[in-house]
Specification:
about 140 residues, mainly alpha
């Protein structure tokens, strides 16, 4: 099974940028309000660096494992006839539906989080998976 590590690295960077855009200019104020963060209080730089390091590690693990998952599915009959976009879309949607969506749904209900927060977080997970899957599928 061949994994393109350059594609994984590009996916990590792209996903990091997406996370910044998603949770800062796009939905940052709503997300922070839903979590009860004070918009005037900035976290210490050490906390920000720690968060960024862990986000990069998490992005790497997700992209690397996702690349293996997508490569494994190429052996399914009919998969070779599908376009890169179809493969990426199927990989993203089914991974999100089977692994991310249930966890997001459960944490929303059990931890009494808002449905707005649920939509922001699960939307990010779906878009993130699709972005990474597109990079991986097109850079096979």
């Amino acid at each position: 099974m061949h994994i393109n590590m350059l594609a994984v690295a590009i996916a990590v960077v792209a996903n990091f940028v997406l996370g910044y855009l998603w949770y800062t200019p796009l939905f940052g104020k709503i997300w922070g309000r839903e979590l009860g963060y004070d918009p005037n209080q900035k976290p210490p730089s050490s906390e920000m660096m720690k968060g960024m390091v862990f986000m990069i590690i998490g992005n790497f693990l997700m992209a690397y494992v996702f690349a293996h998952n997508m490569a494994a599915w190429t052996f399914v009959p009919g998969a070779a006839e599908m376009s890169a976009m179809q493969n990426a879309g199927m990989a993203a949607v089914f991974t999100w539906m089977g692994f991310y969506f249930p966890g997001d749904l459960g944490s929303t209900v059990w931890e009494k989080k808002s449905w707005t927060l649920f939509c922001i977080n699960t939307g990010y997970h779906l878009v993130s998976l699709f972005l990474v899957a597109m990079i991986l599928a097109y850079m096979v």
